[in-house]
Write a structure and sequence with these properties.
The chain is of the alpha+beta class. The chain folds into three domains: about 170 residues, no CATH class; about 170 residues, DNA integrity scanning protein, DisA, N-terminal domain (YojJ-like (1), CATH 3.40.1700.10; about 60 residues, no CATH class. It has ten helices and 22 strands. α1 runs parallel beside α3 and α2 crosses α3. The radius of gyration is 25 Å and the shape is globular.
Length: about 425
């Protein structure tokens, strides 16, 4: 185990090198401003030494030394826990090699500066990690690791405990990991395969979203072993084929190795893509249609684009589906039963989205009188749910009455025993 004095010495070396082009005071002020910037976007900078190391590495990634008119790419792995010896990389740089030299070896793709306790080395991975999803998998494989990466275009990525940060040269953009929303989405789709849900969420959030290409994926919850119809889309309700409609080999989103190929296809094809109950791609280039009831009942917020409108209405008509929409500018929305059940976004004012920690129990329910969807709201303290629509009071007193808004049609109603102001959730009926 590293002694405190050696660890502090290593940290001081890393921090000092990150400020070699300025005075120590200027470097310190810059890191202080950086901490404030990260706090403003909801990123938790660790306390103490790990936080100082992280700030130093981010500062270096944003302001690397110029060489012959260009700024190099760069990458660093900061370990708050010991990395297993069987990790898929080789280490170099023990001994008298300077930190500055080690940094020149780190391309941020396959080689990274590795800071582990009092050790500062270079880790060479078995394969390149260019894309966000590859870094996410590396982060998941080693709990406690923090990753800093500078791309050749000057973009900087930071993978922390709960958040992915991206610096675009002007702003910090923060977004959560796809895994964060797994439990919340699964609670709205009881009985679904969490393994497939995790694969689809990860593909949308960490592969399609960074590509800045829009996409719509329709996940069918019911298994259908029949063959595709002669015209792609013919067998699916409210899906219509287009000139770009094609049937696909059964690439499985459960196989992470296929995600790059699927992304490559979807960046070149318009329309929706069907994913079957087993996570296999079936067809793409399909047009979502909506019934008269969906057009009349589904309340689409002002300003929402045609892709989101079509997906929300389609999910109302086809109750045995979940629809994932990736916007061209990055945000990911998930629709079920005519409601948006998750919004995974990135913004320079902090993370936004449906609360991934929303309770999945301790609720009261009611049926919307207009769209007939079943709505669930957090139960108020001191009340007891006796039946679906019956709430009693545990202690003597009057059960609270709250106003709720249906997330599907926008109808307002009152419900006994609910927390005032708590959002109503739509939970899919089991198939």
């Amino acid at each position: 185990m590293a002694t405190p004095s050696r660890t502090v010495a290593a940290a001081a070396t890393m921090v000092a090198v990150s400020g070699t082009t300025t005075t120590d005071d200027r470097a310190e002020r810059r890191r202080r401003r950086l901490r404030e910037e990260l706090t403003d976007v909801g990123f938790d900078v660790p306390d103490g030494l790990p936080g100082e190391l992280l700030l130093g590495e981010i500062d270096y990634a944003r302001h690397p030394p110029r060489h012959e008119g260009t700024f190099p790419s760069y990458g660093a792995l900061l370990c708050t826990e010991a990395v297993p010896d069987l990790a898929p990389y080789d280490r170099y740089g023990t001994g008298e090699t300077s930190v500055d030299t080690l940094r020149r070896l780190a391309d941020g793709r396959q080689s990274f500066v590795l800071v582990e306790g009092d050790r500062v080395e270079v880790a060479v991975l078995d394969e390149p990690h260019d894309r966000e999803v590859e870094l996410v998998r590396l982060h998941r494989a080693f709990p406690g690791i923090m990753i800093v990466q500078r791309l050749t275009d000057g973009q900087v990525r930071v993978l922390g405990a709960r958040t992915i940060l991206t610096w675009d040269g002007a702003h910090w953009w923060a977004k959560p990991y796809a895994e964060t929303y797994l439990a919340s989405v699964a609670a709205s789709v009881p009985g679904c395969s969490q393994m497939i849900l995790r694969a689809v969420l990860e593909f949308c959030v960490h592969t399609m979203s960074p590509s800045r290409a829009g996409a719509t994926l329709v996940w069918q919850l019911d298994r259908d072993d029949g063959d595709l119809a002669d015209e792609p889309g013919e067998e699916f309700h409210h899906l219509r084929g287009t000139e770009e409609s094609v049937r696909l080999p059964r690439l499985s989103l459960l196989d992470a190795g296929t995600h790059g190929a699927v992304r490559q296809l979807l960046t070149q094809v318009d329309g929706a893509t069907v994913v079957d109950a087993d996570g296999n791609l079936r067809a793409t280039g399909l047009h979502l249609t909506a019934s008269v009831d969906a057009q009349r009942l589904v309340a689409v917020p002002r300003g929402r684009g045609t892709r989101h409108t079509a997906a929300q209405r389609y999910s109302f008509d086809e109750e045995r589906t979940v629809v994932f929409v990736v916007s061209a500018d990055g945000p990911v929305s998930v629709f079920s039963d005519g409601a948006r059940i998750a919004a995974i976004d990135a913004g320079h004012v902090g993370m936004v989205g449906v609360d991934p920690n929303a309770p999945t129990d301790g609720v009261v329910s009611t049926t919307c009188t207009r769209c007939t969807r079943r709505l669930y709201v957090r139960r108020a303290p001191g009340t007891l749910a006796l039946d679906d629509d019956v709430t009693d009071v545990i202690d003597d007193g009057v059960a609270p009455v709250a106003r709720i808004t249906c997330p599907v049609c926008g109808t307002t109603a009152t419900i006994v025993g609910a927390v005032e102001g708590a959002p109503a959730r739509v939970v899919k009926r089991r198939g």
